[in-house]
Amino acid sequence: MSALLEARSVGKRFGGLDALMQVSLGIERGEIYGLIGPNGAGKTTLFNVLTGLYRPDEGEFLFDGAPLPVGEPHRVAAAGIARTFQNIRLFANMSAVENVMVGRHVRTRTGVIGAVLRDSGSRAEERAIHARSLELLEYVGLAGRRDESARNLSYGDQRRLEIARALATEPRLLALDEPAAGMNATETASLRGLLEAIRADGVTVLLIEHDVKLVMGLCDRVAVLDYGRKIAEGPPARVQRDPTVIEAYLGGALHA
Amino acid sequence: MSWAAKDLGDWVETAKRDPRARWLGVALIAVALAVLPFVAGAVGGRGWVRIIDFALLYVMLALGLNIVVGFAGLLDLGYIAFYAVGAYTYALLASPHFGIHLPVWLVLPMGAGVAGVFGVLLGAPTLKLRGDYLAIVTLGFGEIIRIFLNNLNAPVNITNGPQGVNRIDPISFSNFSLARPVEVLGIDVPSVHLYYYLFLALALLVIFVSLRLENSRIGRAWVAIREDEVAARAMGINTRNIKLLAFAMGASFGGIAGGLFAGFQGFVSPESFILMESVVVLCMVVLGGMGHIPGVILGAVLLAAMPEVFRNTIVPVQQQLFGKIVFDPEVVRMLLFGLALVLVMLFRPAGIWPSTTRKRELAS
């Protein structure tokens, strides 16, 4: 069986800066795939190109064998890729449960007429949206905070809420941009449990992360980006010993 | 600062939970609304009923703009253009101007539809704009519509230019015209009262549609776009369609109000649709409580009635006291208006009646 997601020589330039060059990688079904690299290596750019927020200058993504729509985030979400953001982007003035309910948008159909007439079909759909959203809040451990405005949640809870909202779109690939950033050790440990549960439920996970312990312990494979290029890929233990990776992180310290 | 609104909100919540209190509340409001024109007419004459009629039109306008500005967060400074489109659609299709006299049940929905199309025409080129940039484009759009109406009298006379369209058909349903007073159970019901009931019915319809949309998949998508457009797109919301839908829905409410205005006045001219009117409707939304339907209704009623109430009270009071008019409220109207804005923004920045932390009970 082919990879769930395959990036084929993806390139992205910003003016004179090559943010991504010839990046190719394949993510297998059911794995947790880490994307690491120093700051400014192009990890988030790769996410943005993948999820349609940016258009790639070269290359393409194949998702489940079919090319992903380019530059149309809503169609990427419909295809089954959901993401979170490095700098949390929740709907701040909506409650926790409403945030998750927005995630159901792409899998539901009620339009203006259904909303106004509230026929039995739209009522049933609305109930299902609400019920599923509560389930997801419970799943990520936020059941008790359903009516709290997203802006009032703690940092760790906001990260979890973003994951719940992403899961509401029924993704086959969940792309998380630094989910553990700013979390303390306890929060990181419980995040790890959550990600393992998500994987166990059959969702493939793509993870950008700086927390080395988390990446090493959780990911099946990792790719390392440096200056827009993929410089290594493989199981974490092997990548950790790769001299090019060490050099990228320590900046030529080996030659000193 | 927000204790009053909170108490009111709590009280409303409690009342909603008790079905008897709820029905009693609805019944009281219904009776009050039914007798309102007679009370107002008895106290202040037909002029007051007319003011209430206009206030209802403004409620519809403010709720329409609330969809665009309050829900979807798209700042629109040219909203009155849709009111104009609705009014002219009615005026041109039901007046001697072209000799066309289409019935109301046809021409009002057409006004809403044409305004909706104009909403999409405004929305489509401005999809990537937000905030102040969008405000400037919409402001220009509103002026363009008004200037077109002003100048489309040559070479082919379509709008009759600055003179406007005259002798527009009053609103009537088959043989029953709202322009003629009727006698019901021995009570004289004048024309303004009849218009009141029609406007009230349509305002209630607009409120109903607004409320239903707010608590729906579509309403949530609008708010999501307001809160964070990038995240909304990443969550699978087709922001282009959902924004155009907001423009179209908001515009169609304006179009209905415009049609009613044309039929009520019997006369429309470009002067009624100046930038200041867009600003006033926006103030109703902002002062009342952006995105909160009861707040917006309150804002519309207050701002629509306030200048007229001033005119009808301050002038006679001055004549009584001094025997002449010392200051004309019309002169200081804008001053008072500005003062009200400043005070509200200082002391209640979220509006007079903002939404409390939304505790929605969606389970039904």
Describe the structure in your own words.
The complex is a heterodimer of chains A (256) and B (364). With 256 residues, chain A is α/β, with parallel strands linked by helices. Chain A folds into two domains: 1-80 and 177-256, 3-Layer(aba) Sandwich (Rossmann fold), CATH 3.40.50; 90-170, no CATH class. Chain A has ten helices and ten strands. Chain A has helices spanning 43-50, 73-79, 96-103, 112-117, 120-140, 155-167, 185-200, 212-218, 236-241, 243-250, and strands spanning 5-14, 17-27, 32-36, 58-63, 66-67, 81-83, 173-177, 204-208, 221-226, 229-234. In chain A, strands 6-7-8-3-9-10 form a six-stranded mixed sheet, with helices on both faces. Chain A has a four-stranded antiparallel sheet with strand order 2-1-4-5, with helices on one face. In chain A, α3 (96-103) packs across α5 and α3 packs parallel to α6. Chain A is globular. Chain B has one domain. In chain B, 70% of the residues lie in helices and 4% in strands. Chain B contains 13 helices and six strands. In chain B, α2 packs antiparallel against α7 (191-214), α3 crosses α11 and α4 (80-93) runs antiparallel to α5 (104-123). Chain B starts with a helix and ends in a 17-residue tail after the last helix. At the A-B interface, α2, α3, α4 and α5 of A face α7, α8, α9 and α10 of B.
